[in-house]
Design goal:
Length: about 950
């Protein structure tokens, strides 16, 4: 049995958080000498020694509270009975946890709790998994002297508004664990204790319920609740799990560890893994609750083939589908040439699966026509950081933010797109860290409960480089450079050239204000704070990379970090927030047409030779096609076959009508996915994919953390994704023979230097590892570039501001930018098939009230959004989160057509699309766009074809 599959039991709870002190204290507990870290509570010291102290209000994810009075102990030389959770250990302290008097007091306290509690244990959904029930047994409570007839709370109504959990106030013991979890762990402050004395109760606000409150459904309150007051609806419906499997979330790039808690093949709930290094027991609404898509009725579970997209599908066996696909691909190559086919790998699949795709292209297809959605969002990160620092990845682990004094968030919205990291960040801000937000939109971090940014620089979309150059100019002009760091760690000639450039008057905040739209004095003040405020860390997202100057912006960020010495230690660094769960891994595995695994050029004879020797074939030294090139060649008639694994390019890529035309021109489009997505509607072969719950392997998150993905249920389609790719490669004549993903990782480690020390055994033992993991760094590398940069000396690069070609005109006077929302994920294929749609069931267009008034637009009106390449229709949402002249939307629903209007402008170095800058006009309309009408008709037709095939 997998070592991380175990019979279900609650995760160990030591009552109070672990002390981080290096000093130790020795005391005696129940006659036993115990040595623990200074600052440890008596309760935790007892637990660590194997001595359980009864508790209710205490849990190790929250600071001690001391309200329940169940954890009382006796301490020699002290009067009374102190709470063990709030009492720190002292040298020589002698503690007694069990005595007749303690037992009497604890039973008395429990009597009071039970006298005001429904006695429905046999039918309670948490029967057998309830701390109140367990604690009553531990203290020996056998009778309640007060009776149950007096005034009580047992008839209070339930709040069932949340789609994921029920709040049964009648079972609440007012321990405040849920309130504290909302404050300390999540940082939303949605819960409070209302009333006083006997009338005290947990509340989500006056006359409000959970669904309509500020609650973000992260589940922290549910996890913290010691009774059945807050209970997952899945537990109410299906009962307590019987075993669990430790795995890694398949949503965003945070990479949270979870316990998939199961009954047979059915997932009952996903519980955050307390030992998960990325999340430390926390979660968001997607990872915690939105797992139902894995068994949704829309799942496609059998292979299908057809000759034309205008024909119905034919359901076939795996063998027939793979034979059909391989014959089609070989026929295309015979007709159009070896480079007429290619593949797109998925950032949602495992490292091992992505590795096989690029290997199949290079050895089976005989070319380098492989690309990935990771290039479509974060390739400027790889290029920019490689040029400046020498490694194509972020520099820190997430926990490092706890040591930051100044935090810059640029072009990212962590509380929506990376919520668990967002909670970490907010915790640090509440502790006193300073915050600079650089974003065209007023994101939550600009002003939220108990936090507020020091500076919000609402830069105009497309002017990121101008703003960063202005910040750097200020730091140089005002003598704030860390010259010692620059002299020791950076190339002198490159720095001198950069200094000549950055000191030019046109880079000053005053000169750049016309481009950035940000007041010069605010830019200067933010620059001073970043340069002088202590440890300063930069976190950025797609609002940096998805621009025509995305690579330049990343290099400008790296320049700032080197200029101020904010790199190479905890609490600082350059930290890209990856969008999907394995964006980092899909890049690491060589899913680029110009690079082999480990970011090494295909044109390098020595590098290519190492792969040729291992794989026994000659590899093409010429770079292959990127996705945009594939589309262009498809339309020109020279690229006719595509294998698309777990990626919905018809919805996610820019200029949708151009993409659809290219897909329609294909003679063999093979789509491997769990749903009939928008791309699959243009396919000739459909191979059923597997969700993360149905496979083994690894994901690599935004902090370079390699974590295990473990199979919790058998693949509904009969094969995990790696097995499907293996089958296609073998049908193409590849002599491969893998028995497991572990065998693939062994090959990855042999051929990829930064992974050379990675093994499944090591990941099992350590929980996860961060690359580089080598002989020199055998347990991984939490912080990069500590003594020297990967490239040796850091390189400053001149970052000239070049305005985007996409500019406002009288015809298109507004700039549209795009982003994500908390409840939905990427193209929404997963989250739209869960109850998350209760929060976001359609994409809307945020428009400033001034712009709306000029156009006669009111809240909720249908509005047409037109660009130079297309138009779509959405509902209007009047919002001051965007500045005048800027509109904003999301892209989670295919019928919204956000990418119908985004152009094919792209980053100069990597072709990363410029999603964040599209010149548009917005007008009030009364009907959908022509594209939307066509899309709905095409969707109905393709779904009918698929349904007919499934029904046989």
């Amino acid at each position: 049995m997998n070592s991380m599959v175990e019979f279900y039991q609650p995760q160990a709870d030591f009552g109070t958080p672990k002390s981080q002190s290096d000093k130790t204290v020795t005391l005696t507990i129940d006659g036993r000498d115990v040595t623990v870290a200074e600052g440890t509570s008596v309760m935790r010291a007892a637990f660590e020694a194997g001595i359980k102290v009864p508790k209710l209000c205490a849990t190790d994810s929250l600071e001690s509270f001391g309200s329940c009075r169940v954890c009382l102990v006796e301490i020699e030389g002290r009067r009374g009975y102190p709470s063990s959770c709030t009492t720190p250990v002292e040298t020589g302290m002698s503690v007694t946890t069990q005595s007749d008097q303690l037992a009497k007091i604890r039973r008395g306290v429990m009597e009071l709790y039970i006298s005001d509690h429904p006695l429905d244990c046999l039918t309670c959904p948490t029967n057998g998994d309830c701390e109140l029930q367990s604690t009553a047994g531990e203290v020996g409570l056998r009778d309640v002297r007060y009776g149950f007839a007096g005034e009580n709370h047992t008839q209070l109504e339930k709040d069932e508004s949340s789609p994921y959990f029920t709040f049964d106030s009648s079972k609440c013991i007012v321990c405040s664990r849920c309130v504290r979890a909302c404050e300390e762990t999540q940082g939303t402050f949605a819960l409070t204790i209302s009333g006083r004395g006997f009338d005290s109760r947990v509340s989500v606000g006056a006359e409000s319920d959970f669904l309509s409150s500020d609650c973000v459904s992260c589940g922290a309150c549910v996890a913290a609740c010691p009774t059945a007051t807050l209970t997952e609806n899945s537990i109410i419906d299906h009962g307590i799990p019987e075993h669990s499997v430790t795995t890694t979330c398949a949503y965003c790039g945070v990479g949270c560890g979870f316990k998939a808690e199961m009954r047979g093949q059915e997932v009952i709930r996903m519980t955050p893994w307390k030992d998960g290094k990325a999340n430390e027991g926390h979660a968001c609404v997607k990872g915690r609750f939105a797992f139902g898509y894995a068994t949704h009725k829309d799942r496609m579970t059998e292979p299908m083939i057809r000759d034309s997209i205008d024909e119905p599908w034919k359901k076939v066996s795996w063998e027939e589908a793979l034979s059909f696909a391989s014959a089609r691909l070989r026929g295309i190559q015979d007709k159009y040439g070896q480079k007429s086919i290619g593949a797109i790998s998925s950032s949602r699949c495992t490292n091992e699966e992505v590795w096989l795709v690029q290997k199949m292209v290079r050895t089976g297809f005989g070319n380098n026509n492989v690309d990935t959605c990771a290039r479509v969002c974060h390739s400027p990160t790889g290029y920019g950081l490689k040029q400046t620092l020498g490694e194509s990845a972020g520099t820190q682990d997430f926990a490092s933010v706890a040591d930051a004094d100044v935090i810059v968030v640029m072009g990212a919205n962590p509380t929506e797109a990376h919520p668990v990291f967002g909670s970490r960040l907010k915790r640090r801000l509440r502790e006193g860290a300073r915050l600079i937000v650089i974003d065209p939109r007023r994101i939550e971090l600009v002003g939220a409960p108990h936090i507020k940014s020091d500076y919000h620089l609402p830069v105009r979309p497309g002017a990121n480089v101008a703003l960063l150059n202005a910040i750097a100019h200020t730091i140089v002009e005002e003598g704030l450079v860390d010259q010692g760091f620059v002299d020791e760690r950076c190339e002198k000639v490159a720095f001198a050239n950069w200094m000549t450039f950055i000191q030019q008057r046109e880079n000053s905040p005053e000169a750049m204000e016309a481009h950035t739209g940000v007041h010069a004095e605010d830019v200067r003040a933010a620059a001073r704070l970043y340069a002088t405020g202590g440890n300063a860390a930069i976190y950025y997202g797609l609002g940096v990379t998805e621009h025509s100057q995305g690579s330049t912006t990343v290099m400008a960020i790296a320049n700032l970090a080197m200029l101020t010495g904010n790199i190479g230690r905890r609490g600082v660094g350059v930290n890209p927030l990856r969008g999907q769960n394995n964006v980092q891994g899909s890049c690491d595995m060589g899913s680029f047409p110009h690079e082999l695994p480990g970011y090494r050029p295909v044109g390098n004879d020595e590098v290519r030779g190492s792969f040729e020797s291992a794989w026994g074939v000659k590899l093409d030294p010429e770079p292959g096609h990127r996705i945009p090139n594939m589309f262009e060649e498809a339309l020109s008639g020279s690229f006719k076959g595509l294998y698309c694994q777990g990626e919905d390019i018809a919805q996610s890529d820019p200029n949708t009508q151009h993409v659809e035309a290219a897909l329609s021109a294909m003679e063999c489009l093979i789509v491997q996915d769990i749903f009939l997505n928008e791309t699959a509607k243009f396919a000739h072969v459909f191979l059923p994919g597997s969700s993360f719950l149905e496979k083994d392997g690894t994901f690599t998150n935004a902090e370079r953390r390699i974590s295990r993905v473990r199979k919790a249920m058998e693949p509904l389609g009969g094969k995990a994704d790696w097995q499907a790719t293996l089958g296609l490669a073998q049908a193409l004549g590849c002599d491969w023979d893998y028995d497991s993903p572990e065998q693939i990782m062994q090959e990855i480690a042999r051929l990829t230097p930064t992974f050379s020390g990675v093994t499944y055994e090591k990941i099992e033992r350590l929980g996860s590892v961060q690359w580089p993991c080598t002989d020199e760094a055998s347990t991984g590398t939490p912080t990069m570039h500590e003594e020297t940069f990967t490239r040796g000396l850091g390189q400053f690069i001149v970052t000239e501001y070049v305005p985007t070609d996409e500019r406002c005109t009288r015809r298109f006077p507004l700039i549209m930018t795009t982003g994500r929302i908390l409840s939905q994920y990427n193209v929404g294929a997963q989250t739209r098939r869960t109850e998350n749609s209760a929060w976001h069931d359609e994409d809307v267009l945020e428009i400033h009230p001034e712009d709306a008034q000029e156009r006669g637009i009111c809240e909720g009106d249908w509005v047409g959004i037109s660009s130079r390449i297309g138009d779509t229709v959405l509902r209007a949402k009047l919002s001051q989160r965007v500045r005048p002249g800027v509109v904003y939307t999301t892209f989670h629903h295919p019928v919204s057509g956000a990418n119908v209007i985004t152009t094919d402008n792209s980053d100069w170095a990597t072709n990363c699309p410029e999603y964040k800058v599209t010149a548009v006009q917005v007008t009030r309309v009364s009907q959908p766009s022509q594209w939307q009408e066509r899309q709905k008709s095409f969707d109905r037709k393709q779904k009918r074809f698929a349904k007919e095939a499934v029904l046989g």
